[in-house]
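ok new one. same drill as before - structure tokens go in, u give me an amino acid for every spot. 237 of them this time. try not to just spam alanines like last time pls lmao
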């Protein structure tokens, strides 16, 4: 399937707390129903990179939705700068576990009720902040699989959710990542092992935090290609 065979659109969703959330949706133009995919943003918003990733998944046959997790504090379509993280902090810090759960459920229900989506084949993938959100999603909605790229904050703050995980998990880390320590990475897998959860743990030794994003200085093309192939295989299997 090539990029010309996908449809891209913006969809606004109601959230249980009374807010409205913009989302970016990309889906195959033909066929269906298709598997569904929640795509969770980095701390920089549903920007060009996240929209591109959403489109790449659509080209692989997924109805993919990227919710704007900053919708309570930032205008629709907000995009932050990769070189000005402090400007993002008010929005980043406003995303609590509780607000994330509400946003997850809203986007998940949109997929589940969509005639173009196989309701029992919905997965999640997230990057950076979104890696943490993908982990949360796996504990609150019925996913098929859940992928977390360098999910900061899973350890130590969310490890008590390991027992609630419903789907197999794929964790992707950069070995050079100073934001997420080797100890934190280890405690994540130990928590899942203790709860006898199914997971795959992949560490790319020459990659830093954010290595999958080809618009960031940390981009590492070899690791990014391999992580993409691994992600697609994990979602399918």
């Amino acid at each position: 399937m090539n990029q010309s065979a996908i449809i891209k659109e913006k969809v606004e969703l109601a959230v249980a707390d009374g807010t409205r959330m913009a989302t970016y949706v990309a889906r195959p133009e033909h066929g269906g129903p298709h598997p569904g995919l929640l795509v969770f943003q980095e701390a920089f918003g549903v920007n060009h990179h996240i929209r591109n990733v959403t489109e790449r998944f659509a080209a692989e046959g997924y109805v993919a939705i990227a919710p704007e997790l900053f919708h309570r504090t930032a205008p629709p379509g907000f995009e932050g700068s990769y070189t000005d993280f402090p400007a993002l902090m008010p929005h980043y810090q406003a995303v609590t576990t509780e607000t994330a759960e509400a946003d997850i459920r809203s986007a998940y229900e949109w997929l589940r009720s969509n005639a173009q989506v196989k309701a029992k084949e919905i997965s999640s993938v997230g990057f950076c902040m979104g890696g943490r959100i993908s982990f949360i999603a796996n504990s609150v909605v019925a996913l098929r699989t859940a992928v977390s790229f360098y999910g900061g904050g899973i350890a130590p703050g969310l490890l008590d959710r390991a027992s609630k995980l419903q789907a197999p998990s794929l964790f992707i880390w950069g070995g050079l990542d100073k934001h997420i320590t080797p100890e934190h990475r280890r405690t994540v897998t130990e928590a899942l092992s203790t709860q006898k959860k199914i997971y795959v743990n992949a560490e790319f030794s020459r990659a830093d935090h954010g290595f999958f994003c080809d618009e960031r200085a940390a981009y590492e093309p070899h690791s990014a290609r391999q992580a993409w192939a691994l992600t697609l295989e994990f979602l399918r299997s």
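Helices lie at 48-59, 89-94, 97-112, 129-140, 182-194, 221-236. and btw The chain has a mean pLDDT of 97.
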